[in-house]
Amino acid sequence: MPVKITDIPKEEFIYEGSAACPGCPATSALRMVLKALGKDTIMVVPACCTAVIEALQPKTSFRVPLMNVAFETAAVSASGIEAGLRSQGKENITVLAWAGDGGTYDIGLQSLSGAFERRANILYICYNNEMYSNTGIQRSGATPKYAWTTTTWSGKGETKKDLVEIIKAHDPAYLATASVGYPEDIYEKTLKAKGIKGPKYIEILAPCPPGWKFPMNKTLELGRLAVETGLWPLYEYQNGRHYFTGVSRQLLTGAREFKPVEEYIKLQGRFSHIISPQINQEALQDITKRRDEYWKRMRLRIKMEEELDREG
Amino acid sequence: MNENVQILDGNTAACEGARLCRPRVIAAYPITPQTVIVEKIAKGIDAGRIKAEFICVESEHSAMAACIAAQATGVRTYTATSSHGLLLMHEMLHWASLARLPVVMANVNRAVGPGWNIWCDYTDSMAQRDTGWIQMYASSCQEILDMHIQAFRLGEDPRVMLPVMVCFDGFTLSHTSMPVNIPDDSLVDNFLPPYRPLWKLDPDNPVTHGNIIPPKNYNQVRYSQHLGMRHVPEVMGEIRRSFSELFGRDHGGMIEETHTDDADTILIGVGALGAGLKVAAEEMRKNGQKVGTVRLRVFRPFPVNDLRRVCHGKKVIIFDRAVSLGLGGVIFSEARYAMPGEDLHGVITGIGGEDVKTKDIVSVVERSAKERLENYWVGVE
């Protein structure tokens, strides 16, 4: 049974009046995550927007214990906390590493890989706004091709890193993707991860109004369009098997058509150079082709997984 | 007193010292010449001799990050490293100190590359001078073990609350075996009270640690670290008395002195080099030369008052095994600050594992009678 909005607890773990921008996807995603994890949670935050959202010392907008950690250390810090708690027999506390895409795809990748290889019992969540937003919109390994940033002035020339595939290569106890466009899905997947022992990874697409250059009331809409166009697939991954969820499941089975990628691209100022003064058809075709190839590959992969299941 | 004397190398003595202090989490990464510590800790945990969680991390940076995070849950932590490993940790050294988490770490002193040099000098640890870590230097395998016990008590003292680095010479001590008296666990438990954290991560009392801090508050936090450092000489004095009463051994406090009362010349150094100075001084005294020595057991905080007291009015020769390039010997520069009016000579020696023999030390002392030695660099053309 999918989670309904009325199933989500009313208790809040982020106070009102945080230092987040209006329309901030990170805060709305984290609100759902903490509702799912509850009070018995310790979180670490490396350098990222959330480090600002917490508010200035001596105040804080967070109701769970939180330690700010060095940029490249989110996963290993979570793993250190987990070891510290285990040494005291406190094993009912969820340790959450909450990091942006810069801290995950780039500078924090080594420690993330190390912690997952060691099977640390942690939940690592990357809220991915596809750039270094806290420092003012620079390219990261998660920035998609063509996107403008302050270090890719005529659009990024390279495709983004397929990080989830790298995480899958570590055989995580649980992996899921989510989008700010579907808060109940974030809640449900976090709740599921909480009940699983071992290294767990969730990546949440976080469309950022100032970074992507769209109006602040469009965050959820962009979060949904990313999924509906097939550019951001939603799924869970466990024991070497993919389980597509929500709209993505319908896209996978063909029960639903992909929305054209333009619908997603044209709402974002960071792609304006491929939209105006005239539409860069080549770029849009490239994005569409890559999307289609992805889904073809995933359908083949799922067929293979089903065959493996049949063989037992 | 129960005597349990074993022949141990310095790395094993470090491992035994750490074991006796009962750290709950140990995170470490292997590097020559520290590797034996990691191996023996892993073996000790495997055999149940050491009751700790072991995180066998993928880098030294992660080793220190893991210790910091684990210590933030309110438990004692330990790690060990050397040379490039210590340099990789640099960022996290600041983090531990500013967070007032008294992690204890052994650093087996080794030169820095390129080219790859696995032998001893003190460049690695002395380059971490300003990270807010207390730095201690041991001069024998017994002192390595004892210094671990002292380091935990010093760093965790509520007046101090700072991380502590126990440094000792790569190979010269790490791989040299000597008789070491291993004290009873209960004796160490009497000396070292349980760790009482200044703050910790606890869902029943949620705090946010390390969020954005305005300049005025940051300034205050920095000053409180400095105050913690300034309490070290006082606490070290207490530790020295209490340690020698309980364990029947005395390696000194902030410094160890020999013959300073009647000496007209004082030789200063740290670590195994400091021990070598003692041997040379004894030789020279046989010839009637009034030579004494000061071995700095604590380099940070710098033992300014002890040096002023001991060296006043005497000729002082400082033997440095680390150089601040463009200025000179590290201890020499600091001694200049501590004793501006004294007759100071500075020698740079033992770099990259160059052996410093008794005759080398004697020849430096002879040379200092003929000329003022100002960053006199031994063995170079």
Key attributes of the depicted protein:
heterodimer, A: 312 residues, Rossmann fold, 13% strand, B: 381 residues, alpha/beta, 14 helices, 18 strands, 41% helix
Description:
The complex is a heterodimer of chains A (312) and B (381). Chain A is an alpha/beta fold and 312 residues long. Chain A has a single domain, classed as Rossmann fold. Chain A is 39% helix and 13% strand. Chain A has twelve helices and eight strands. In chain A, strand 5, helix 7 (183-194) and strand 6 form a beta-alpha-beta unit. Chain A is globular. With 381 residues, chain B is an alpha/beta fold. Chain B contains 14 helices and 18 strands. Chain B has a seven-stranded mixed β-sheet with strand order 3-2-4-5-7-6-13, with helices on both faces. In chain B, strands 10-12-11-14-17-18 form a six-stranded mixed β-sheet, sandwiched between helices. In chain B, strand 2 (25-28), helix 2 and strand 3 form a beta-alpha-beta unit. The longest helix of chain B is centred in the middle third of the chain and has 16 residues, at 141-156. Chain B is globular, with a radius of gyration of 20 Å. The mean pLDDT of chain B is 97.
Short note summarizing the structure:
With 312 residues, chain A is an alpha/beta fold.
Under CATH at level 1, the class of chain A stands as Alpha Beta
Number of domains of chain A: 1
Instruction: Give the overall shape of chain B, derived from the CA principal axes.
Output: globular
Rounded radius of gyration of chain A (Å): 19 Å
Tally of discrete structural domains of chain B: 2
Q: What fold name stands as the CATH topology of chain A?
A: Rossmann fold
> What is the CATH superfamily label of the largest domain in chain B?
Thiamin diphosphate (ThDP)-binding fold, Pyr/PP domains
The neighbouring-strand order within the major sheet of chain B is 3-2-4-5-7-6-13
Low-confidence stretches of chain A: none
Under the CATH scheme, the architecture of chain A is 3-Layer(aba) Sandwich
Shape of chain A: globular
Number of strands of chain A: 8
Mean pLDDT of chain B: 97
- Main sheet attributes: strand count, strand direction, barrel closure of chain A: 8 strands, mixed
CATH class of the largest domain in chain B: Alpha Beta
What would you report as the Rg of chain B, rounded to the nearest angstrom? Answer: 20 Å
Low-pLDDT residue intervals, each spanning 5 or more residues of chain B: none
Fraction of residues in helix of chain A: 25-40%
